[in-house]
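Quick start: read one record
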Amino acid sequence: MPAKELSIGQVARRTGLTISQIRFYEGRGLIAPPRNASGQRRFPRAELRRLAFIRIAQRLGLSLARIRAALGPPEAAPPTPEDWRRIAHDMQGELTDRINQLTRLRDNLDGCIGCGCLSMTACALYNPDDAKGAEGPGARNVEG
């Protein structure tokens, strides 16, 4: 039978995170592993799911603040299946927007690199007479 609690090294092996990454997440208030009498971190198994979510959400470009807001306080009870469904539902629109932005970037980047200017805000091909400048700063054709 597997142990109910894991050491930080065991968590690192299970999650693919480094020990320093795990400590970083702890320092940012994303996780709060309890400590034993010797002061060593002891992670409940539910923390594996929380850390996996943090890792995936960060790879998708979500900020640590957004991830922390989605998960709630680390001291709370582990998220239930219903909590995970709510978190997924709450993030769907944001992830869809990010997918659309990345798709526009993918579909337009080769043309931008091809012309050599590397500026979709000033490019004569994508932005004649700098018409997009009135819409605000940044790569308007990609950012939407």
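The CA atoms of residues 19 and 26 lie 11 Å apart.
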